[in-house]
C-alpha cells in the first residue's frame, strides 16, 4: 500500500498560491527546490484537480499533456475535456474506494500536487497519509488556501523538520487515521 502525499509550498499565512494563482513569491531554485525535486523521483503517480491541471496551461502545457512525464498522472474533474489519446487520465468521480484501490496498486508513492479544494476533499475523505510542507517566509494575504475552504480537521504527527538558510522550513507530518 503506497501513501498519498500532499507535497506543497505554502506561505506563512496558509496559501499555496496568491491571488489569481500567483506563485511568483515561492522559491524556484535553491536547496529547498532541489530537495523537492529529489522527492519527486520517488513518486510514481500524480493526482490533481482540474484547476491545478489547467494552471499548467499558463506555462505552456497543452490539454492532454502530462505535466509529470515520469509519472502516471490522473486529473479528477467532472468537466475537463482532453483530446483522445491524452497522456493524462481524467477521472470523473472522486471516490474513496477508487483512491484506496490506487494506493494498493500504485508502483510507488502518490503525489497529490493540488490544489487546495481538491486536497480539502481528499482530507475529508481520509485518504491523505502524509503532508509535506515547504513553508515559505512570505505572507500572501489571500489566494488558494492549503485545503481550500474546508474546515475539517485531522490529527497529525510531525515526523521531520528541516530549516533552510533562506527562511524556508520543510516539515513532514503523518496524518493519523
Question: Keywords for this structure?
Answer:
single chain; 177 residues; alpha/beta; two-stranded antiparallel ribbon; 4 helices
Give the SSE map.
Blueprint: E1 4-11, E2 15-17, H1 31-40, E3 43-49, H2 50-55, E4 72-76, E5 89-91, H3 96-105, E6 109-112, H4 116-125, E7 130-136, E8 144-145, E9 156-163, E10 169-175
Parallel strand pairs: 1-6, 1-7, 3-4, 3-6, 4-5
Antiparallel strand pairs: 2-8, 7-10, 9-10
**SS element count, helices:** 4
Look at the helices and sheets and give the structural class: alpha/beta
Radius of gyration: 16 Å
Helix content: 10-25%
Q: Care to count the β-strands?
A: 10
Could you state the order of secondary-structure elements as H and E? Answer: EEHEHEEHEHEEEE
With strands numbered from the N-terminus, the spatial order across the biggest sheet is 5-4-3-6-1-7-10-9
Fraction in beta strands: 25-35%
Tell me the overall shape: globular
Main sheet summary: 8 strands, mixed
- Low-pLDDT runs of 5+ residues are none
Give average pLDDT, whole number: 93
Give the termini distance in whole angstroms: 15 Å
Briefly characterize the structure.
The protein is of the alpha/beta class.
Describe the protein's architecture and organization:
The chain has 177 residues and is an alpha/beta fold. It is built from 4 helices and 10 strands, in the order ββαβαββαβαββββ. The chain has helices at residues 31-40, 50-55, 96-105, 116-125; strands spanning 4-11, 15-17, 43-49, 72-76, 89-91, 109-112, 130-136, 144-145, 156-163, 169-175. The protein has an 8-stranded mixed beta sheet with strand order 5-4-3-6-1-7-10-9. A two-stranded antiparallel ribbon has the order 2-8.
